[in-house]
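Teaching note: in complex prediction, the entire set of molecules is handled at once rather than each chain in isolation. The prompt given to students was simply: 'Predict the structure of this complex.' The entities are:
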Amino acid sequence: MGTITVDLNAITANYQQIQSITGSDCTVSAVVKANAYGCGIAPVAAALQNAGADKFLIATLPEGLELRSIIGENPTIYMLGGFDPENSDLYTAEKITPILNSIGEIENYAAFASKSDQALPAIIHIDTGMNRLGLEKQDLVKASEKLDGIDVQYVMSHLACADEKHHAMNEAQYETFKAAAETFPNLPKSLANSSGIFRSPNYHFDMVRPGMSLYGLNPTPETKNPMQPAVTLEIEILQIREARGGETCGYGATHRFEKNCKLATVSMGYADGFIRALSNKGALYWKDYKCPVRGIVSMDLTIVDLSAVPENELPAPGDMLKVIGPNQSAGDLAVACGTIGYEILTSLGRRYNRVYKN
Ligand SMILES: Cc1ncc(COP(=O)(O)O)c(C=O)c1O
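The expected output is the structure of the full assembly:
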């Protein structure tokens, strides 16, 4: 059994830090999709709301409905996943503001809005280089002529490379966005995710959309993390074992021990989000001793090597090893296996206890 501790004060402080960087003319819309990046949408959204957040972003309609039941009827909910005509009434009943990503979505939403006695709110998403969602350059004028009955609150785009300080895409997308937004004159604009917020005040416009930085991940990977850590994870030791030199461990017998050593088997595997790519790669910590993962990560179990721990300080079954905490961040763990902190956090499974501090 493992315990995830989410520090709601840290999340609040991170939100406030972003608000102070972007200034009072800029709205901070908190990205709480994917169960608030694995941290738990209900306590996180409530804490952000207490800190003054009144705009939230989610990806899907079910996420929007869940969030609405948590935050009450007043705060704004923007939905990245666009407008689904088959569920149109839910958007109005639950006050979900869609982010419209294509001409087709704009047409469908305008048709739906024409049946309403008031204009319906939306954000218009312009693609400036991701080639993922959003209006293409050749669609802009056409889109701008189809907005009858739609109350466009923002035009937005999304940065592809903001985590790389000097990446040429950042300025290129900024310029493309400014030019494209001229097709929708006098509308508020939004461009920056967490990293974008820290790259240039130019990118702030009227609304920023931080996700990862709220949860303590580092939006400026080239420097010290400016955010407060918000998540720790500890995992229980099920067994302490002794392997002899020459023996192997785990599926596929992928690690062979050179000499006798003590091992700890912990109650966490890839089904818990300790992803299989960490096989023979990551490490856990006992006190400040680094205990490398040995062998393949199983579905429910992982084996670590206690060789670095002095004999008189060895842990016992029931003791907790640190997975994410002061010795290693989610980002560090991600680097060890070639992924990103986002994947580590959003993969954290349902079998952990979740404890909320503050
Ligand atoms: C459109 C959009 N805006 C904002 C965010 C938040 O990004 P980040 O977590 O990097 O701050 C995301 C995340 O995927 C996104 O897709």
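Point out the following to students. The chain has two domains: 8-215, 231-357. The chain has a mean pLDDT of 97.
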